[in-house]
Amino acid sequence: MKVTLGTTTWTEHPVLIDGASRPVTLAEYAAYFPVVEVDTFFYAIPNTATVAQWLTNVPASFQFLIKANRVMTRHQGPNDDLPLEEAFARYRDAVAPLVATGQLKAVLFQFPPYFTAIPENIDYLQTVRHLMGGLPVAVEFRHASWLAPGVAKSTADFCADLGLTLVAADEPHQLTTSVPFYLATTTPSLAILRLHGRNKAGWNHPGPNWRRERTNYRYSVDELKQFQVAIEQLTPAPAEVCVIFNNNSNRDAAPNALQLQKLMGIHFSGLNPQPPKQLSLF
């Protein structure tokens, strides 16, 4: 079983560039990690040329986990009047360069908290599978009704039937607004963990800085070891487990990813060359 590690976005990880106060380039990021999650698709579907340009900065083995557009995940908001089938068609066109080179890890459907486990939404997952064709799809639920005791296995089995990778999300535990961590193999090729941090105080923090506060958290070594055990004991083992760190409000994602890499003794091959200077990353 291969384990890959990455973060959400490539720009906000100064530890990778010796603490410099500038955005990290994609080429620099790809010297350390073999995968990145990109959330720009959620807000607007970029043109194909933009996606193709990304590929000029990364090695051939590098892959992208791309968020689905908000229309496709049924988020409520302004400017969401694009017809559903047209949104899916535009999206498939935009990711075509990644598909052509085998560099699309998966399309991530992170559903809103009000996307609950009701028949209408269960049916919608079938629509997603149909409209995405043969593209790899991962789903992350943000309402506990999908992963409640006695329900989680049925959810996993349903995802397996549809060929959807069920994302295991780590969030603050035992809050009414968080979901339990549930790691299961629903597709033989891939399992995904997305680690948001366990900042209980910030998770429900009201105000303009809520999105930043909620992921302000650095995992301890003991917590990282818990993920290591969960990954190593996952049965049946998929071909790959991909771990994405989303706890980056205080620039903790990359340091935590590098710590987990060291704990698990993981070596990534085929990355971009690192700068000749040996950096002290911790």
User: How many helical stretches?
Assistant: 11
Straight-line N-to-C gap: 27 Å
Largest sheet: 9 strands, parallel
**How are the strands of the largest sheet arranged?**
6-5-4-3-2-1-9-8-7
CATH topology: TIM Barrel
Domain module count: 1
Mean pLDDT over all positions: 92
Instruction: List low-pLDDT spans.
Output: none
What's the name of the CATH homologous superfamily?
Answer: Protein of unknown function UPF0759
Under the CATH scheme, the architecture is: Alpha-Beta Barrel
Rg over CA atoms: 18 Å
Principal-axes geometry comes out as globular
Q: Helical content, roughly? A: 25-40%
Strand/helix succession: EHEHHEHHEHEHEEEHHHEH
Secondary-structure content class: alpha/beta
CATH class: Alpha Beta
